[in-house]
Amino acid sequence: MDPNMMIQKALTEYDVCYKNRLYLPKDKVENITRSTGVPIPRNGIQVEIKDNDNSYWVNLGVEGNRYFIGRGWYNLRDARNLKAGDVIKLYWQDTKFIFSI
User: Fold this and answer.
1) What's the predicted TM-score (pTM) here?
2) Long-range contacts (CB closer than 8 Å, 24 or more residues apart) made by 97-100
3) Pair 33, 40: CB distance under 8 Å
4) What is the pLDDT of residues 5-63, one digit of tens each?
């Protein structure tokens, strides 16, 4: 696994609150976009997150200089009963993120 394609994050209260946004480390997202050559437009881009046999479509967006997973994040968060303090990993493989906890 290429570490430049991996995002690891300890979830914060904000990540699991009602606002339904998971903020991602800017440097890690920019490593992935640079490696894949796929830019993230202002209105975001739909990406798939695979979690074992489940698939979640989410919107990967940018707000100012911050990257986030928005629409669709709550489905994965609720399915895995994620809480602040949980450490998650998203690995970009081909055209999707592979999720692990």
Assistant:
1) 0.87
2) 97/7, 97/47, 97/48, 97/49, 97/50, 98/49, 98/50, 99/49, 99/50, 99/51
3) yes
4) 899 999 999 999 878 899 999 999 999 998 888 888 888 989 999 998 899 999 999 98
d(CA 39, CA 32): 10
- Contact by Cβ (8 Å): 1, 83: no
DSSP calls for 34-90 = HHH-----TT-EEEEEEETTEEEEEEEEEETTEEEE-TTHHHHHHHTT--TT-EEEE
